[in-house]
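Example record used in the benchmark description.
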Amino acid sequence: MACLGVFVAYLPVTTVSVSLPVIQQALHASTSDLSWVSDAFVLPVAALILTAGVFGDVHGRKKVFQTGLGFCAVGAAVALSAQSIAQVWIGQALLGVGAAALLPMTLALISHVVPDPRERGKYIGLWTTSMMGSLAVGPLVAGVIVQHAAWRWIYLLPVPLSLGTMVVAAFVLSESRSPVARALDWPGQITAALAVVALVYGVIEGGAGSFGEPQVIVALAVAVCSGAAFALFERRSADPMLDLSLFRSAAFTGSALVVMVSFLALIGFFFVLSLYLGMVQQLNTLEAGLRMLVISVLPMVLGTAVGRLMRFLSARTLIAGGLVLTAAGLFTLTGVGADTSFAALAWRFALVGLGLGLAFPCITATAVSSVPPHRAGMAAAGNNAFRQVGGALGPAILGALLTGKVVGALPDHMAAAGVPTAVRDQVLHAVDADGLGAVAGLPLGRATGPALDALSRSFLDGLHLCLVVSGVVVLCGAGVAALLLRPVRGARSGVPVAGGPGRPGAGAERVSGQRADRTPV
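Model output (structure tokens):
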């Protein structure tokens, strides 16, 4: 049931990502609008995932699990009937609320049933396989649907899948709660949500316009102040939503930072990659989906094997090595052009997928296993929150970089292609008003070919910049893993545990804040 839940939660990610060019054309959306399509899903996940973890601990994980599935079904139904980009945002946001409920519950269910960290790694490997399987299936589903029906039908599958999983869960899942009494932390919830939303709004709007605009400055200031208020509330709360003492564990801190920067690069990469395949290579959704499948299929295949491999190799080795491979794949993609063949793309995509397949199962297992057992649900929710903050910032930051680079390079490329000045002004006005996709529909006469060629060259400049930034970010994640995820002497599972150097489980009392808890972790 945990694997089914995470499959449902992540299905909208690549299903929608690969369909962005089609959505842009159908609804006349700008690049900034497309960023909000992705972030309308990710923001509720990042803002609500910690609260969902507390709700599950207090009211029952089965109830929250089924509630999340219900939100997924409703959100997909709203987007399925969308007639405007705003309605797509609403549907995506409801799907995000559902995913926020599902993600911590799926890991908490595994931790509840499999308390042994060494044995749990195998099941978290299966969980990661299901997550990556969802990312792999999404482009294929979207490609087949868009080939034969309207783009809205990409939202059909989550409806019966969510409802069917709800019915099965009602019979096969038993209810569980945290053995430690918890209460809802409303000040922490409100300030965390406000900080995440304000930060992403500021980045997207600043990238689309200027970071000197008043609303952008206000949004970023609100993000900083709300983040500081969140930390203050959590330090003083008797029952915090995210116990900041968890960060005394180097393993938990390292896994949180690594997963955030990794997903920033990954989700941002998927965002710009889908636009490259659709706008530059002129591929339909199915063709683009088949190419993106190469990235997702290797992590899906490797998930279970890596779970077993963690018994013999340290998490630091697997995570840092995997992220270095991922960065290498991203850097090799800077050599692609408008006519790069599938074969030339495939080996580069495979390198990215291989690195992700090695790193991702270990990151999640490290976060959950680095704290005392009764804190596993909070650790899972916290790790997923950092994952989703990175996922929200990815399209926002890389989308802003892409747009800025394309708009800056386009005049020179059009001049070099011999596009008349009047046509150049028309193209730049269309890009400024309606985004990059608007150029394809302009009546430019004999200048159409040179103008589109100039747009492709400008887009490639932006793509290469985004790939370099993503690669550097992933390398930073590898460095954090190498520094913070130090193997603990005597830990046989290969998963770092709380407390840093010393005996396994040392510092459990310190992290939990309860002297009575001496359970090895």
